[in-house]
Design a protein that fits this description.
Elements lengths: L13 E4 L3 H13 L4 E4 L4 H4 L4
Parallel strand pairs: 1-2
The chain binds flavin-adenine dinucleotide.
Flavin-adenine dinucleotide binds next to helix 1.
Length: 53
C-alpha cells in the first residue's frame, strides 16, 4: 500500500529500507511474529511497480 508523508510521522516498531528480496523477507518474517507496525520505504519509481521499465 502506498501511503502519504503523514504516515512517516507515526511510530513504527520496524522500518525497512528497500523492498528487494532481503527487505521483504525481513518485513514478512517480523510481521508474522508480532502484531507490531512495520514500514517499508522503497525508492523505486512508480513505473517499476507496474512492471514497466
Ligand atoms: C541482471 C540481474 C539478474 C539477476 N538474476 C538473478 C536470478 O536469476 N536469480 C537469483 O537468485 N538472483 C538474481 N540476481 C541477483 C538478485 O537480484 C539479488 O541477489 C537480490 O535482488 C538482492 O536482494 P537485496 O534485497 O539484497 O537487494 P535489491 O534487490 O537490490 O533490493 C534493494 C531495494 O532497496 C531499494 N533502495 C536502495 N536504496 C534505497 C534508499 N536509499 N531508500 C529506499 N529504497 C532504497 C532499491 O530500489 C531496491 O528495491 C540478479 C541480479 C541482476 C542485477
Amino acid at each position: 500500500m502506498e501511503v502519504g508523508i503523514d504516515s512517516l510521522r507515526q511510530p513504527y516498531d520496524l522500518i525497512v529500507i528497500g523492498s528487494g528480496p532481503a527487505g521483504l523477507t525481513l518485513a514478512h518474517r517480523y510481521d508474522d511474529l508480532t502484531t507490531s507496525r512495520t514500514l517499508i520505504i522503497e525508492s523505486g519509481s512508480r513505473s517499476n511497480m507496474n512492471g514497466k521499465a
